[in-house]
Every structure is written in C-alpha cells, then in structure tokens.
C-alpha cells in the first residue's frame, strides 16, 4: 500500500483531542439521559470509531444498534441519494434515540435519516456528530452534541474514508487533493 503521510496535507484533529472531547460530551449525555431508556444508533460505516470510543466514555449503560446508509460512494461529493444498506434491528418505540455520526457535511444523510426515524415511535431523537462543516451545509440538521466544527476540506481518518480507504488513520486529517483529482 502507498504510504499514508504523502496523502495527507494536515492533521486537523488528533486522536488525543478527540478522546478529550468525547469525555466532555459523554458527561453531558450521562446527565441528560439519566433514568431514560437510551439507545445509541451508529451510522455505518463512518461512525465505527466514534461509537467505540464514545460509548465507552459513557457511564450510562446503553444498547448500541447500527444503521448502514451511504450517499458518497467513491466520490468526494454527496450524491444526495441516500440508500439503506442495513436497517436497525431495534424497535424504536418508547426509546430515547441518540444517533452517533462521524460528520455532518452537507447534512443530507442526517436530515434523511431523521425523517426516516420520525415515524418509528421513538420517545425522542437527538444527534451527536463528532465533526461538522458549517460552511458545507445544504440543509440544517438539528444536532444536539457537536465535537468539532471544521473547515470545508475533505477529511479522512478516525472512521472517515475516501473510497473506503483511510478509515484506520488515528487522527482526522485533510486528504491531499492529488489523491482525488
Ligand atoms: C459520510 C459520513 C456521513 C455522511 C456525511 O458517509 O460518514 O455519514 O457522509 O455527509 P453529508 O452530511 O453530506 O450527508 P458515507 O455516505 O461516505 O458512507 P460511510 O459512512 O460508509 O463512509
Ligand atoms: Mn457515513
Ligand atoms: Mg464515506
């Protein structure tokens, strides 16, 4: 495989910074959901790392389910067409759902998902996104917990991919344009 560092122009958020921020957000979630029937829903595949670290930073005991949706495929732009690749295993009736996402870019994936979840009888539905790009928003997403607001660059690592690669980088980094142009 090609060496990773030549594909990266800049580390944007380090693993250490992520883990620190996850502790802060987990403390908020512990307080906000005390005594409630919390269900964590991760959005595959990008959310795998943040779900692993965030769920273990919680003191609350909460089940984890997954939804697999994809809109980017191999490109760097959202197709706008969201496809369900795997649905939830859990009935949302009466549950307090916290969707865990790696990134809100255009917002299309989450706005589609929130609309899809609306008819499933959840008691509440909130969103935690580790990263958000305010300058890329095409639709507003009501996101209760945000890790970091970042500039409008194409980022990879800590679960985020370009054409399925770079998910296993520890930090969040800007992908060098030569990789995708
Ligand atoms: C990425 C990312 C978010 C979504 C954000 O997923 O993980 O789910 O795009 O972009 P948006 O706000 O513009 O919709 P992707 O569709 O690449 O699938 P993946 O998680 O399997 O990589
Ligand atoms: Mn995703
Ligand atoms: Mg992707």
TrEMBL record:
GO terms for molecular function: guanine phosphoribosyltransferase activity; hypoxanthine phosphoribosyltransferase activity; magnesium ion binding; nucleotide binding. Pathway: Purine metabolism; GMP biosynthesis via salvage pathway; GMP from guanine: step 1/1; Purine metabolism; IMP biosynthesis via salvage pathway; IMP from hypoxanthine: step 1/1. It comes from the Bacteria. InterPro entries: HGPRT, Hxn_phspho_trans, PRTase-like, PRTase_dom. SUPFAM superfamilies: PRTase-like (SSF53271). Signal peptide: none annotated. Its EC number is 2.4.2.8. Its cofactor is Mg(2+). It is found in: Cytoplasm. GO terms for biological process: GMP salvage; guanine salvage; hypoxanthine metabolic process; IMP salvage; purine ribonucleoside salvage. The keyword Metal-binding applies. Keywords: Cytoplasm, Glycosyltransferase, Magnesium, Metal-binding, Nucleotide-binding, Purine salvage, Transferase. GO terms for cellular component: cytosol. It catalyses: IMP + diphosphate = hypoxanthine + 5-phospho-alpha-D-ribose 1-diphosphate; GMP + diphosphate = guanine + 5-phospho-alpha-D-ribose 1-diphosphate. Residues 16-162 form the Phosphoribosyltransferase domain. Belongs to the purine/pyrimidine phosphoribosyltransferase family. This is Hypoxanthine phosphoribosyltransferase.
């Amino acid at each position: 495989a090609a060496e990773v560092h030549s594909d990266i122009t800049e580390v944007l958020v380090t693993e250490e910074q992520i883990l620190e921020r996850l502790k802060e957000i987990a403390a908020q979630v512990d307080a906000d959901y005390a005594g409630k029937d919390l269900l964590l829903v991760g959005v595959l595949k990008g959310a795998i790392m943040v779900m692993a670290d965030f769920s273990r930073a919680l003191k609350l005991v909460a089940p984890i389910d997954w939804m697999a949706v994809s809109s980017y495929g191999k490109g760097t732009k959202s197709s706008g067409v969201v496809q369900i690749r795997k649905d939830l295993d859990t009935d949302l009736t009466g549950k307090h759902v916290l969707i865990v996402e790696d990134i809100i870019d255009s917002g299309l994936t989450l706005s589609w998902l929130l609309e899809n979840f609306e008819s499933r009888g959840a008691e509440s539905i909130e969103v935690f996104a580790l990263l958000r790009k305010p300058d890329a928003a095409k639709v507003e997403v009501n996101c209760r917990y945000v890790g970091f607001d970042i500039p409008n660059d194409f980022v990879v690592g800590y679960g985020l991919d370009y054409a399925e690669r770079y998910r296993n980088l520890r930090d969040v980094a800007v992908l060098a344009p030569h990789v995708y142009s």
